[in-house]
Every structure is written in C-alpha cells, then in structure tokens.
Write a structure and sequence with these properties.
73% helix; elongated; 157 residues; mainly alpha; 5 helices
Length: 157
C-alpha cells in the first residue's frame, strides 16, 4: 500500500513540478511569459479587490511573484512526494493565491468563450485544492506509529 501511495503522490506532484520546471526554463531576465501573462491579470484582480473590499493590494514586481510561485511549486511538490505536510501546505497556499488571479472567469460574460475555458481551469484548480485538503486531513487523522516496547521479562527465582 505504501508503494501505491508513493506513486500517487509522484503523479499528483508532477503537475506542480513540471509546471515549475517549464517556468524555470522560460524565466529569463524579466520573468518570462508567465510574468507577461500575470501582470494584466494581477492588475485586474487588484482593482477588483479594491472596488469590492476597499483593500489595496501592494505593488509587486511580476518576476518576483513568478519566482515565489515557482519556488512554492517546486519545493512543495518535492516535499509532497516525500509525504510531508509542509509540501502540501505550500501547494495549498500556492493554489489559494494563484487560482483567483490566473483563472478570472468572473470578469467575463457567460456567453464568451473565455468564460468557459477559465471556468474549467478554475474548477480543476479547485479539485487540486480539494485533493490537497484531503491529503492533509488524512495525514492528520492517521495515528502516528509508536515504537513497541518489549515487556520486561519477569525473573523467575
């Protein structure tokens, strides 16, 4: 059973690790295509948050934001493969922050093609989020292995 669990973690984490590897290869001096895609979406998300909550998100350099996301996916994926809850929490945090920014279906009309594409990607990200929550819940609900102590031998006289 442990082997099957390990293979499942490898397959699940491969989504994040391969994505981080691709972003790393394309990063360059300016953050690569990921930074170019993220910048307008971050601005729209920031204005959306400001108009609805009155809270202004800080200005950040996109290449730094991409680097942090890349590190979270890479390190989180590797730790997740090893069965670490910290890896799952890193991936969970990445998903929680990036999903509403990258998959902004709420900015499009239902009739638009972009709405359908972004909504499907948003729901896939929610499924990954749910799987991570499930992993953390199962990890925390399983009792820790305890070393069995041998009962002391009784001395016969």
């Amino acid at each position: 059973m442990a082997f099957v669990s390990f293979v499942g973690r490898v397959l699940f984490a491969s989504i994040f690790i391969l994505s981080a590897w691709q972003e790393f290869n394309d990063y360059g001096n300016d953050g690569g295509p990921a930074a170019k895609t993220l910048e307008p979406r971050y601005k729209v998300f920031s204005s959306h948050v400001l108009s609805n909550t009155g809270f202004e998100l800080p200005e950040v350099e996109m290449k730094n934001l991409v680097a942090v996301g890349l590190a979270m996916k890479g390190v989180g994926g590797l730790l997740f493969i090893m069965g670490s809850s910290l890896g799952a929490y890193l991936l969970l945090l990445y998903q929680a922050v990036s999903t509403p920014i990258l998959h902004d279906f709420y900015n499009y009309d239902v009739d638009k093609k972009e709405f359908a594409v972004l909504f499907v990607k948003f729901t896939q990200s929610l499924a990954l989020f749910g799987a991570l929550l499930f992993f953390i819940g199962m990890k925390n609900s399983m009792p820790r292995r305890q070393l069995k102590r041998k009962a002391p031998k009784t001395k016969t006289t």
